[in-house]
Amino acid sequence: MSGFYVYIHFLIIIAIGFNRYNLRYIYQHITTILGSYDGSLPLAHYLKQYYKQHPKLGSRDRKVLSEMAYCWYRSERGLPNNLSVEERVQACLAICKRSGKHLASFLPTNEQQIDFQLSNIFSYDVQLSAGIEKEEWLHSMLSQPDMFIRIRKHKEGIIRTLSQNNIPYKEISPTCLALPNSSNIDALLPEEDYVVQDASSQQTGNYFQPQNGEAWWDCCSGAGGKSLLLVDKESTIRLTASDTRQSILHNLLQRFKKYKLPAPTTIQLNMADDKDVAQKLKGRLFDGIICDVPCTGSGTWARTPEECYFFNTDKLASINTLQKSIANNAIKYLSQNGTFCYITCSIFRQENEEVVNHILDSNPNITLQEMHTINGIKNHADSMFMAVLKKQ
Fold first, then answer.
1. CATH of 199-391 given 3.60.150.10, 3.40.50.150, 3.30.230.70, 1.20.1340.10
2. Which runs of consecutive H residues, i.e. helices, occur in 175-222?
3. pLDDT tens digits, 295-320
4. Which pTM was predicted?
């Protein structure tokens, strides 16, 4: 993939909201942040800790530094090597098309042509799942996806409230709205009426077909986004949710309580340990299993660009082994004619189609019904993978 040229305006220091001292102060901090951050924590958590350690940073300072850091991890690897740190920061802000009064003093003003290599953002030879074009995916990582809500009830009231408060929205589907990421809706909308959930994650629910009274298991539930989606489709199911973390299961139960839904059975277990699973499930079988496995999250890297920046293929191989183990351990508990939903928020073939093939090869009584890559790029959303399998 060839590079392309972008016009960068190199900095002439003009005091627009920032004096010369503040400019140096901000550049000192961003240099420290970039030099010390190693990707072991989510960038949002690291920045929160950093700001706590430096309480003299004002709200505008923090906003500028956050913009700089996120733009750096989105685009820095595509820049030539002959630029200083300050020049690279400025170029990253321009490539990611960041603007606003708070950034005016940090945006370049002298026009110069820079050979920005988009392909260098992710230069690994990793195959993508069907339905994802690499260049389109790389372009999408230069900007933050939207925020999405799933409407549970009172749609007209939600739309009226958003309009009255001048919050722009776009209807993605009859139950899905896209909002700007800066939207503060907590105090405006009744909490029972909506769930914050990515548009592509919401689409996975199109493949859930729960029937009255069935037993379902969300085996890697996390905080319960898919569980809530499932129960909203069919409230009579008997739901079990499991995760390795008790704190996450507690959060799940609190969310069900908030939405006035029946509490599911929760089990803390390690899905990669077949003995732990067998001991705690005690032979139970399920009509439906949601297996939303841990993954690289490559379909969500536009939200967390640091994951792309610090990616390595060893991590992919390790996660892939874990995914195969979890899927095969979970599918043992599927009833005859039951439905198994394999889900990732990855766009890598190794985590998606290859794992599905592994499941089929390892379980002769399992057949593939359908599989899809949910490409969220055009909706400024995440991308996901979904496969529906059946036990014959």
1. 3.40.50.150
2. 199-203
3. 999 999 999 999 999 999 999 999 99
4. 0.91
